[in-house]
Specification:
Number of strands: 3
Distance between the termini: 33 Å
Radius of gyration: 21 Å
Largest sheet: 3 strands, mixed
Number of domains: 2
Order of helices and strands: HHHHEHHHHEEHHHHHHHHHH
Shape: elongated
Helix content: 55-70%
Structural class: mainly alpha
Number of helices: 18
C-alpha cells in the first residue's frame, strides 16, 4: 500500500473512528500494549480460579504438558520465556473456554492473545499459529456451579478441531502487521510465513492472510479472480470469512465486479469490510460500496455501507440519494448527509 493512500487515511481518522468500527489501519487504537494484553489474560485467569473446580485436562501427554505450562505461566504472572505453537494453541483454548461462560468469539480475549503473540513471538509466529490445526477439540462438562470443566480431547471423525481461523483473528492481527516497516526483517518474515500458508490453505484462510496484509494487494486480487471464476461457473459465493479479500483489494474495478456478482442474498457479508475498503481505495471505494448498498438487506448492513460511502465520497452518496429507487437507501443516505 502506498504512503499516499495511508496519508489519505490519516486525514480521515476522526471521521472514521467509532466504537463499532475502529480504524483498521490505525495501530494506536487497535493494538493494546504487551503489558495490557498480558494483564487481561492473567486477570481473567485469576477471576476464573475462584470458580474452577479442577484444571483443564488433556487427552494426550503432549497436551497435558502444554496445559501445565500455560497454567504455570498464568499462576506465576510471568510472561513465557519462549513460545511454542502447541502451547499457545492450548493457551487460546484455555482462555476462551476454561471459564464460567465459554466464548470462542470473546473479542477482548482475542485481542489480548494476538497482542501477546505479535509483540513477543512476532507476526510471523502469529500467522503460522492462526493457520494451524490444533489437533484437538474443546470438550468437557458443566459442574454443579455451572462452571465449564475443560478437556482438550482427540477429534472424532467428521468434527472440526479447535482453530483460530475466523476472519476476526486475522483482522486483529492486521494493525500489528501494518505497523511494521515493510523493509524490516519482521515484516519480511511475516510475509514469507503468510505466503507459505496461502500456498496450501483453503479459501477462507487465504482471505484471512490477505486481510492481515493490506500491503500485499496482489493476494486479494488473486483470490478475487478465483472468486469470480467460481461464481461465473455456478458456484455459490464463499463462506463469510472469504469476503475479507475486500479489505485489502486495491483494484476498484475488481471490487466493483465482486459487488455486482454478490447477489442480494450474499452482499451483506461484505459490510464488515466496508471501512477497510475506504482505507485502501479512498474515494474509489464509492462505486463498489454503492453497488453493495443497492442490494436488499437489513438495516445494520445498510447503515454500515451508507456511513462508508459518505466517508469515501459525499458527492457519490448524494448522487445515489437522488437516483436510487430504494426508499430505505434514500432515507439512510438523507440522514447521513444531513
Amino acid at each position: 500500500m502506498s504512503s499516499e493512500r495511508l496519508a489519505w487515511t490519516r486525514a480521515q481518522r476522526k471521521k472514521l473512528r467509532g466504537p463499532l468500527h475502529p480504524h483498521p489501519l490505525d495501530p494506536k487504537d487497535r493494538t493494546p500494549t504487551l503489558d495490557a494484553s498480558w494483564r487481561t489474560l492473567v486477570e481473567w485467569f485469576r477471576a476464573g480460579a475462584r470458580l474452577r473446580r479442577r484444571p483443564a485436562a488433556g487427552a494426550m501427554p503432549a497436551l497435558r504438558e502444554s496445559i501445565a505450562r500455560v497454567y504455570a505461566s498464568f499462576e506465576s504472572d510471568a510472561l513465557p520465556a519462549s513460545f511454542d505453537h502447541a502451547d499457545e494453541m492450548a493457551r487460546a483454548a484455555i482462555a476462551l473456554v476454561d471459564r464460567e461462560h465459554p466464548d470462542l468469539h470473546d473479542a477482548r480475549i482475542q485481542s489480548a492473545l494476538v497482542g501477546l503473540w505479535a509483540q513477543t513471538a512476532g507476526a510471523a509466529f502469529t500467522v503460522e499459529l492462526l493457520a494451524r490445526e490444533s489437533g484437538f477439540l474443546t470438550g468437557g462438562v458443566y459442574s454443579p456451579m455451572t462452571y465449564f470443566e475443560l478437556e482438550l480431547v482427540l477429534p472424532s471423525a467428521g468434527l472440526r478441531t479447535f482453530s483460530l481461523r475466523d476472519a476476526s483473528w486475522w483482522s486483529t492481527l492486521r494493525p500489528y502487521v501494518v505497523a511494521l516497516d515493510p523493509r524490516s526483517e519482521a515484516y519480511v518474515a511475516a510475509r514469507a510465513a503468510a505466503e507459505t500458508v496461502r500456498a496450501t490453505a483453503d479459501a477462507a484462510t487465504r482471505a484471512g492472510c490477505a486481510l492481515a496484509f493490506p500491503r500485499e494487494p496482489e493476494w486479494a486480487a488473486a483470490d478475487a479472480h478465483e472468486w469470480l471464476s467460481r461464481v461465473q461457473h455456478g458456484a455459490l459465493p464463499w463462506a463469510p470469512d472469504s469476503w475479507a479479500i475486500l479489505a485489502s483489494l486495491d483494484d476498484a474495478d475488481l471490487a466493483q465486479q465482486l459487488a455486482e456478482a454478490a447477489g442480494p442474498q450474499w452482499g451483506h457479508l461484505a459490510a464488515g469490510y466496508a471501512f477497510d475498503m475506504v482505507d485502501v481505495l479512498g474515494a474509489r471505494a464509492a462505486g463498489p460500496l454503492a453497488a453493495l448498498l443497492e442490494l436488499p438487506r437489513g438495516a445494520p448492513a445498510r447503515k454500515t455501507f451508507v456511513a462508508a460511502l459518505v466517508l469515501a465520497d459525499p458527492g457519490a452518496a448524494r448522487a445515489l440519494h437522488d437516483h436510487t429507487s430504494n426508499p430505505a437507501v434514500r432515507n439512510s443516505l438523507a440522514a447521513a448527509l444531513a
